[in-house]
Amino acid sequence: MRSALPSDVSRLLRFGAVGLLNTALGYTLILAGLALGLGDIVSNAAGYAAGLTLGFFLNRQWTFGRAGGFRPGAATRYAVTFVVAYSANLGIVIAAMSAGFIENPFVHLAGNCLYSIIFYLGSARFVFVGGAGEPVAATNAKWPGAAT
To answer: Minimal CB count within 10 Å: which of 41, 48, 77, 90?
Structure first.
């Protein structure tokens, strides 16, 4: 039986590289927005929107190899996965603040790690499944309920 580990490691590295690229784009746009006087909220929203958009297309095509077809609902599933991952991140930060850990960089690191794990697993098992060459039955075998 052949192990899927090398493929998984390669995919994890690609996911990390995409994360670095979309973070760089998002942060650059946040700084540009601030320099243009757009304020914190608008600048942050623009940066996150651009980073998430870039991440979606790079992950779909390069990380998870779904260039052959765009499944309806993939962008919505990606947004839902982001909200779940980001909520978990905020949950760690809020819990740590309640426990007295205020402005602790390790809390944010822990939250970011959980965010990354959830976003990767959600992307791999929920967002980018059942592409053009993969029947829905195979998707359901990987994660029952993913096609709904």
So the answer is: 41
Three-state SS sequence of the chain = CCCCHHHHHHHHHHHHHHHHHHHHHHHHHHHHHHHCCCHHHHHHHHHHHHHHHHHHHHHHHHHCCCCCCCCCCHHHHHHHHHHHHHHHHHHHHHHHHHCCCCCCHHHHHHHHHHHHHHHHHHHHHHHCCCCCCCCHHHHHHHCCCCCC
The pair of three-digit structure tokens given for residue 22, joined into one six-digit string? 């979309």
C-alpha to C-alpha distance for 121 and 129, rounded to whole angstroms = 11
- Say how far apart CA 45 and CA 28 lie, in whole Å: 12
Q: Is the CA virtual torsion 50, 56, 59, 62 positive or negative? A: negative
